[in-house]
Design brief:
alpha/beta, 6-stranded mixed beta sheet, 24% strand
Length: 345
């Protein structure tokens, strides 16, 4: 198991293909100038000690040295052992609506992207809670089981899109029922379902499902994403943008936030509702709500004792740069005697 301490430095690897291109251009330019000066064989005879192989070798050594230096800045860490640790927190499942109505851009950049931002910011504010992710539209789909790996959660979160589920709609009751399965085996740990949706196309069974969830000790918080004025659902085809139309009337469909439906679901599960337009308000609301939920101690298996490995990469980089300094561009005498490249005629 490993992790990258400063992954932002990986962008420096773009320097390597740029340097390779610059080196090849320089070699072609030198060869062109030599041809202008005179016959290439004659030019080589005028400088018998000059090696054609050494410049390329020195450049390759510098490239490897640069790659090792970048990896040293990234600082890979290796986990040396797995151990069970005691944590105190609650189990949280995020159920995210990925129906086509969530593509509406009445809230920037879109309802779905705003939902991802909200959940990501909520995760950043968590301490030692376990989390899971569910996607739903016409049906519910498990994305990530209950885990303490927040980085994995945010990675799966960014990949969510309407194409994950073929059936459309916003089947909130099925999402609630799937959440109940997520919490099986959680024991006495406090359980929270956070639903992020526009609340549209919900079935009448959603409120009943919320009441059933409350009986099983599951609290529900709903976050409404969108505006009550609503907007059309864009259909993008390259640079062209069309809007979803009703098959019967041919009119452009306007999708709207349904706060009343979401408030009713939250009320039936003794939770709360908040509009998701302001990220800071949502994060503050979630923090206060979590503080009012009883924390439970549980065991978690984690990779522990991560050790930095940057010193190995920096050591190799230093050796390669030092080797480049002492490696001269002229031919090495003992190699020249071996005539490996059939230079003697």
């Amino acid at each position: 198991m490993y992790e990258l301490d400063e992954s932002k430095y990986l962008y420096l690897f773009i320097l390597i293909p740029l340097l390779v291109g610059l080196f090849l251009w320089n070699q072609l330019w030198k060869r062109k100038k030599q041809q202008e000066f005179g016959d290439l064989e004659l030019v080589e005879k005028l400088s018998p000690e000059k090696s054609n192989f050494k410049p390329a070798l020195k450049f390759i050594i510098v490239l490897f040295g640069l790659a090792m230096l970048i990896l040293g800045l990234v600082n890979p860490k290796i986990g040396t052992k797995v151990e069970k640790v005691k944590r105190e927190g609650i189990d949280i499942v995020f159920a995210i609506d990925i129906s086509k109505s969530m593509l509406c851009e009445d809230i920037a950049p879109s309802r779905l992207e705003k939902s991802k931002q909200l959940v990501s910011q909520i995760i950043n504010g968590l301490g030692s809670d376990r989390i899971g992710i569910i996607a739903y539209s016409g049906s519910a789909f498990p994305v990530l089981p209950i885990t303490t790996d927040y980085n994995a959660a945010k990675m799966f979160l960014q990949g969510m899109n309407p194409g994950m589920i073929s059936s459309q709609g916003s089947n909130l009751d099925e999402a609630i029922q799937l959440t109940e399965k997520y919490f099986e085996g959680s024991g006495n740990t406090s359980k929270l379902l956070v639903m992020v949706t526009d609340g549209e196309d919900h079935s009448e069974r959603a409120q009943d499902a919320a009441a059933q969830a409350r009986k099983k000790g599951i609290k529900i918080i709903t976050i409404g994403v969108g505006t009550t004025n609503g907007g059309p659902i864009p259909i993008r085809n390259g640079n062209a943008v069309e809007y979803h139309k009703d098959k019967e009337t041919g009119k452009t469909v306007i999708t709207k936030l349904q706060p009343q439906a979401l408030e009713a679901i939250a009320k039936n599960a003794k939770g709360g509702y908040i509009n998701g337009a302001n990220t800071k308000q949502v994060v503050d609301f979630m923090r206060k709500s979590l503080n009012n939920i009883q924390k439970t101690e549980f065991e978690a298996t984690e990779m522990a004792n991560f050790q930095s490995q940057f010193q190995w990469f920096l050591g190799i980089a230093f050796f390669l740069f030092l080797l480049d300094v002492f490696l001269l561009e002229r031919k090495t005498k003992w190699v020249q005697k071996l005539n490996l490249f059939n230079e003697k005629k």
